[in-house]
Design a protein that fits this description.
This protein is an alpha/beta fold and 936 residues long. 39% of the residues lie in helices and 12% in strands. It has a nine-stranded mixed β-sheet. Strands 15-12-16-17-19-18-23 form a seven-stranded mixed β-sheet. Strands 20-22-21-24-25 form a five-stranded mixed β-sheet, sandwiched between helices. α23 runs parallel beside α24. The radius of gyration is 33 Å and the shape is globular. The N and C termini lie far apart (88 Å). The relative contact order is 0.07. The N terminus is likely disordered. GO terms for molecular function: oxoglutarate dehydrogenase (succinyl-transferring) activity; thiamine pyrophosphate binding. Its cofactor is thiamine diphosphate. It is an enzyme of class 1 (oxidoreductase).
Length: 936
Amino acid sequence: MSNNVSPVGYPWSAFEGPNLGYVMDKYDQYLQAPEEVEPELVALFEQYGAPTFTDGSAPVQTATNTAPANFEKILAAVRLAEEIRLHGHLAADIYPLKDRKLDFSHIDPKKFGLTDADLVALPATLFFQNVPANVTNGKQAIDYLRSIYTNHIAYEYGHVVIDEEREWLQAKIESGALNTPLTTDEKKAILNRLTRVEGFEKFIHKTFVGQKRFSIEGLDTLVILIDELNRLSQEAKMNSLQIGMAHRGRLNVLTHVLQKPYDMMFADFAHVSNEYFLPTDGSLKITKGWTNDVKYHMGATKIVSSDYTVKLAYNPSHLEVASPVVTGQTRAAQEVTTVAGEPQHDASKAMAILVHGDAAFPGQGIVTETLNFAKTEGFSTGGSVHVISNNMIGFTTETYDSRSSVYSSDPAKGYEVPVIHVNADVPEAVVQVARFAFEYRQKFGKDVLIDLIGYRRYGHNETDDPTVTNPETYKIVPKHPTVRVLYGEQLASEGVVTAESVEQLDKEIYAEMQASYDHVKEVGKTKEPIAIEMPEAVEQGYPTVDTTTSLDNLKQINEELLNWPQGFEPQNKLSRILKKREEAFETGKIDWGHAETLAFATITQDGNAVRFSGQDAQRGTFSQRHLVIHDKNNGEEYTPLRHISDAKASFAVYNSPLTEAGVVGYEYGYNMENDTTLAIWEAQFGDFANMAQVMFDNFISSSRAKWGQKSGLVMLLPHGYEGQGPEHSSSRVERFLQLSAENNWTVANCSTAGNYYHLLRRQAKMLGTEGVRPLVVVSPKYLLRHPLAAATKEQLAEGTFQTVIEQPGLGANPEKVERILFASGKVAIDLADRIKDGEGFDHLHIVRVEQLYPFPQQKIADIIARFPNAKELVWVQEEPKNQGSYLYATPYMYELAEGKKLQYVGRKAMSSTAEGDMDAHKAEQARLIEEAVAAK
């Protein structure tokens, strides 16, 4: 270990003679009956093991079983040192406003019955194996520890379980490495940065009075922190730094970290199109949608070099939901998916910085959902640096109302994440903390959390008056000097700069900003606003794409999927089920899971990687998929789709953690970063999507319109009424249809495995194009093995995705058809099952609406036109009348009816989604099917 302090070996080095014999006897007793040993000694034995010398050898007992008088002092001193390490943070100088009472009770020597004389009499080796310089006795050792643990940086790492990590953290902290002085140039650079950060906020505050900006002031050193992490990432030869954060400080980070020019930022406030000021060298990339969004939701990409980019993610008002999105983007930036087999993951290629609000971190469950990804196979990123941008208040809510924990950072401790608290008014400490956190991430590949503690100079936004709700805090804030002022005074006192140069720098930077704004005003006088139009590729909808493949190729794929390695033995029942796919392929009985697997194989052959996640996605909730096979003898895993001939891209399927919002956000982010990978999320049951509604609302349905951000994410939502009760029947398709507009996504409810196969292939063909959009698939349960939903090999090889399918066996005598039924998904197969070959149903025709949005209105109109005597158009659905697709489809159907009667057949309007009793379900299902097919 390179550091000069190590915890290994102590406290035994302080014991000798009778003391040593006493401890050894107690250790023997501890091994036999630990309950009879003093709790303090038990704690030492549990932490440090058997008494040993620093070289690891066992000491030789040389004494009797009686403890000398100073044994209790030794033990008390060891306990005091441990209390400083564990609870020194409670007494640390980490609050800039000094408005929090510090707690020294845990680290007071008097609590342990120790005097200065007692401590002086003890050796420094009692506390350290390698004693720090200038520490010669126990009193100096305790003073040293107090100086380390109660200064402007405070540490919590006792919850870290792995000894190697915990000992590394302790050694690094106690070595004094975090107190390394900065160079004169580094100090001047920090002062310059702080002057720009503060000057930017002052200029906007004065120039654009009353406009919201969610100022960084009080946490100015957040920019210093991100700057340092950015520098370290480049130094480590990373390719990408991904940043996620909410509103506060975003404009400042965009300006000073992403280097969005001052005139671009001021143009946003002055309502002048900022495209006029975009750097012409291509170093900054921004996207916008046709509806646009408020300025403090926008992101950007900084092209630092051909090998390194910095990205700040676009973010909605929901503070924390960007965290899993950015984590997914980071994983995508770390992976190579252009080679067949498993994706090649290298966590050293990219890193995420996730900036959280102090009220949101303990308040929003999405935070712990994201933390939980850290060590999982499909979602780890080698560690994110989390930063709590801690202004000690949530909107108007004081900490005692917003959380039940001591610190807002406390939820992270459950995931063994080291926590470093730092005073935001001490810039040099902030830099040292950034270096420490980065080094830990690089060494251990784990998350680390920096709690940057500052304050908020104004209200939640600049139009709020915080004295109304937080009067005590805002008696202090106006009197408190800014960090720029404090640091300028410090450097002047050190002789690094003069007081006059500090003020001159402030004036020069302010003048630079004024010049930029003057430029904006001049441009605004002569240039018209630039209107952003919906891209033509989006407006026109999906083009017709070729999703065919050769029959010979499909046959070879089918054989390879069943060609397991020599000696590999799947579970017997599963082996028989999968082997039946050989026969099914030839006899036209290709079921849903079979067709899906064939689609994935052909997609990787076409050069698009596939990434599939969800709870139990590998097997499939309904045991229909089996993309990963387990050897019955040793549990070894085999993924056939990683061994397909001519595949040009990777395949991955992951059983996700039991979370929806976090995983959906993660997969959305992954697809944003890697836009040629078919990223798929599957809900275990359709109703589980309820827990991800924030992602559908804020990102997936609207990111293109708001921010110009393209996504081709696929969401599979098992849906269908089989009597499994209210929660496991509906995927709430009505919610997705309500969000449907401007060709923002596709919503499909397929009735056959073949149509689903081509739908997936069509989606993959659109990846990386201007017209790509997300895909919502209302996927079945009951139909997974239904013979009427099965496909033939010819349908897969030669077919295409059909937005509308007419029921075979009906409509042969168009003049006799009086009633046309429209149905989507499983209920269409229920209807098909009821009419069999169509005999006796000449009055009827059935149209399956396979694509609900965009609604295939013209195709349906063409079908209706073929039946001149049709009197009724009937929308048939399983869902209650106020749910499902009926209310969405009704306006379209009224236009198509042209005087024909429009009818509804389905369940009545209900507050619940379905019946909870199986018999009631069967009766209601039978009623609606009979009502639909009846002649009138």
